Amino acid sequence: MDNKSVAKVFKLYGQLMELLNENPFRTKAISSAAFKIDKLPFAAEKATMEELSQQPGIGNSTTEKIKLIIQSGTLPELDKLKEQVPEGVLEMLHIKGLGPKKIQIVWKNLNIESIGELYYACNENRLVEAKGFGLKTQEEIKKNIEFSIANKGWVLYARATHFAEAVLDALQQNFPDNQIVFTGDYRRKAEVLQYIDLLIDLPQHVLVSTLESKDYVLQIDADREAVHFKDDNNIAYRIFTTATDSFAKNWLLTTGSSEHIDLLTARNKEIPNLATEAAIYEALGLAFIEPELREGFNEIDLAADNALPTLIRNEDILGTLHNHSTYSDGVHSLEQMATYCKEKMGLQYLGICDHSKTAVYANGLSIERIEQQWQEIDQLNQKLAPFKIFKGIESDILGDGSLDYPDEILAKFDFVVASVHSNLGMTEEKATERLIKAIENPYTTILGHPTGRLLLSRAGYPIDYKKVIDACASNHVVIEINANPLRLDLDWRWHRYALQKGVLLSINPDAHRMEGFHDMQYGVLVGRKGGLSADKCLNAFNLEAIQGFFDQRKAEKA
Length: 558
What we know:
The chain is of the alpha/beta class. The chain has helices at residues 3-19, 24-38, 49-53, 60-72, 76-83, 87-92, 100-109, 115-123, 135-151, 157-174, 184-187, 204-213, 247-255, 258-267, 277-283, 299-304, 334-344, 367-384, 407-410, 428-440, 465-475, 495-500, 520-529, 543-557; strands at residues 155-156, 180-183, 192-193, 196-200, 219-220, 226-230, 236-241, 319-323, 349-352, 388-396, 415-419, 446-447, 478-482, 505-508. Helices cover 45% and strands 11% of the residues.
């Protein structure tokens, strides 16, 4: 075990001592020892106890710890401290810019226990007001988390798009006479990506020599199938090459998915080589299948019957539901959010859903503050008419499945989004029962982010999807597609089942700032993957239709 490895154990020991408010003098001594061990002029592993203890700042106690670490790789005292700290909090120590003091605030004051939750909190602007933080620190932490995630080989689709377009633009400048397109998972709009794939009609050796002359660092598959490289943001790319006369066929094949291609080849062993993808599908007796749907579900059967859905588009979205303002943990005021929706987004309505009272960490609304917000909404609705703000709330689903206000308050909202934010460690049975009880509450209009997942960082709590969706169908509850790129929850793989059961879906940005409204584009993309059409999407209803929907729901409760 080299000195650096021993020093890392001491460093972690010192960090956890500081995090857990251990004796500050011992904490400082351990941290100082970590530095001195790293700078030893000889290998600690080969040194005697006497040689080590004679070094400045390293006494007998530290020497004994060094030898124990070399023998076992750890310290009993360190292991005891580790047991007191959630694994996700330990992982935060690897994020640049986050030391024990800041992590202590994040963990103890904000109840954040994983990097994913921390990243989400940055997006929700929750760190700005915390002691020792601020907007600049929050944004720096967010960037460092993104870099850390990319180092693990994955990236969110939403984060990749800007960089992918820049790479495509650079390639087009280098190869202006060639066809260059996105393909693979990126073209199918997968929510998380390992690679961004491109296809170009160019011999591979020409591609390689040109890119190497532009200082690209390349790798080539052993089978020479694709050229690999990474951009400055550590995002991985693969470029596939093809002859011009087989471009459409290879575009279809590289787009995938493998399950989709298997279904095609089951119909016809050889994929025909034709001028366009549409022509290829037609030759196979199929309607053209949009890339987002090519996942190996029932899209082939639907295409054979000419029964594919007309997929939802960005321009179909007429309003936005589930949004936050400065009344809870939002960045912008209610009026700013509404005005942006009306003037910049061209929408017909805004559903405001600030956090409920249990969400103390998010400045959840007391009943008095709800009434204050309602008064402002009434005033703004007069000012902004015919644009309308609907009075909503994101009511926490409590541990027993009940909602966060008495019925007489819930009854006064135009609509209620019911969401889980706490006690995420339930079994599948308990978590499912909890959701179903909330769904059966007559005042629940929309089930918010059904599993609580945070992509690339926190798995959703386990639920029986069919039971939950069936309960929504029976109780006429809408299911949210939370469009925040970190959530995209309900997962698109369950959209088809929900639609088959007659459940409406709603593409909700969960916006905490004006720019957050634009996240609806990512909800549209996963909605398309799930086969969602505009007539099955609640916030594709126009103002008159959605007002009628809310009025009917209220009448059912009366």
